[in-house]
# Entry
Amino acid sequence: MNNADKKLQAIAAIKATHLNNIGVQCFDADYFRSLSIDLQNRLLFCINSGIENPESDMGCYAGQPDDYDDLSPFFSQVISRHHGVSESARHACGWSTGFEDGSDRTPSELDLKKLGLAPCSMRIRVGRNFDDLPLTSAMNMVQRFKLEERMTTVFAAMQASSAYAGTYHSLTPGHANTITDEQRQGLIDDHLLFKPMDKDPFLAAAGIANDWPHGRGCYVSFDQSFVVWVGEEDHLRIMTMQTGHRLAKLLSDLKSFIQAIVLYSSSDFALSDRFGFITTCPTNIGTGMRASVHLRLPALTAGGSEEKVKKIASPLGLSVRGLGGEHTPIGYDGTVDISPRARFCISEEEIISRLFAGIAALQKAEAQCKAGQSTQL
Ligand code: ADP
Ligand code: DAR
# Structure
């Protein structure tokens, strides 16, 4: 039995037992057999993480920027299942690379002070990938060094900007900007750098953690408001993190920061007419945007569990993560990471509007819980 047959056998077994594994569930053997050998290999590459980790939710990652379009019968099903859209859905890309339309649709309000909140830790990030390199799952060491070198040049150009001037911290051994383990841990504790990737079974099986930690690092502006991750799950995670109330300002600041990066880098981001901004994981396709606020909900998290928050948040289209992000525990004081789940077939402006509405609803539920009332939203 050849390698492909073994994989097909494994897929059939997982399909029968793991109904939540979207990548495996959307794999169709007849479609697979209709493909060229090259596309068959690319499709098997994409679902390898779901095969090696049957308990996956998404169960697949793209390997090449063109995978979504070249394997669209598969990926349109995956996207439909995860994002709750039709298989023919197309993402209208408002924030195209050059922001050609120049329009600013940022909602003017969305001030968290109106909800009676103390200054909050707010963060908006987007995943972006260059269109002239494989995605992080399929890069080799040379390509990872090429990505880091490209961004080192961009970060050097940024020193001329008072808003974005900062420091690049490399995880690459021997890099001019390489940092110590203590410095790395400090950046992680401050939420400025991603967790080690080599121990994540999903990322390891997908190839995303290959060559760890070579070609990885993070850029942090001197005021720590603007951050770029290099070589994590996407080529770039571009983000702004600020403590305050004004969500709309964060969105506007991020848009300007992305524009500066586009200006300084002589390469284009991978962008599909149908799927929007290309990301390694289909959960981020479209806008690539996650907008989050750290919210203290001591009544709803009494006993240290976020289950009650999730029960309220899920119907509101909100994800609940821990203090350290995905797959981490909530804060000892009941702080949780709240963000809209939607990334695809939604505008960036609508994402922060949903975040604001979600926080308002959770604040109301917290007050009801604190007063001993049942949470009625
Ligand atoms: P991503 O948001 O990039 O998908 P994670 O959920 O793992 O990845 O979060 C990455 C890091 O960003 C974690 O350290 C997490 O604590 C931090 N983070 C996310 N949202 C906020 C926020 N609103 N304020 C401060 N840190 C945040
Ligand atoms: N754990 C993987 C990926 C889920 C989405 N999270 C990302 N992309 N960080 C799964 O397939 O469940």
The longest helix spans residues 348-370. The beta strands are 120-128, 166-170, 217-221, 226-230, 236-244, 271-272, 276-277, 289-296, 318-321, 335-340. The longest strand covers residues 120-128.
